[in-house]
Amino acid sequence: MKLAPSILSADFAQLGAEVERVTPIADLLHVDVMDGHFVPNLTMGPALCRSLRRRFPDVCLDVHMMVNEPGKFLRAFAEAGATNYTFHIEVVDDPQRLAQEVHAAGMSAGLALNPPTSVERILPHVAAFDVILIMSVNPGFSGQAFIADVLTKARRVKPMLRADQRLEIDGGVNAATAKACRDAGCDVLVAASAIFGAKGGRAEYPRIIAGLRNGTTGPSRS
To answer: Cα–Cα distances in Å, from 195 out to 15, 100, 200?
Structure first.
């Protein structure tokens, strides 16, 4: 089980300290990139990715492209130090060709689909990707309620995956929903507000991440 805190819910004025607190216990750092077109929000870009890579040279930067033209930004994020580059099936006519370009740029490739999108759309392309990302909210904003019906998609995809592929889920993942995600076969959990929105602040981040990973609340610690 891998945990990927999403900095979408982090305090951007204190981003270095936020990331520093989660990286020792998390496995990836999830970077949500939004263009204001594919989703109704604007977020971060290659410059932030570059800054994170410079400050945290060993972290796995899991870049999630919620944009209409993911191919347009591929090179910029590769040069900025992205580790994984995930784009959406809804905006790409030939996902396998773009996956090849991602690999050629030195990154692993992920393919995502939104809750309304049929899982049938991605099944022909699963073998070409390193990560399949199931969205469990409609993308754009953190803090949304988990859409449990998408777990049927996870159960459909999981048996198709090789040992070197990952099944990731993103949206509404918290202490109440993490077990269902694990039971459906997801082995990478993306969590945003469940971690960075903790009432106890940064002191609670390790406990929350450990709880999501292990299916427990974990002992409180600072």
So the answer is: 14, 33, 10
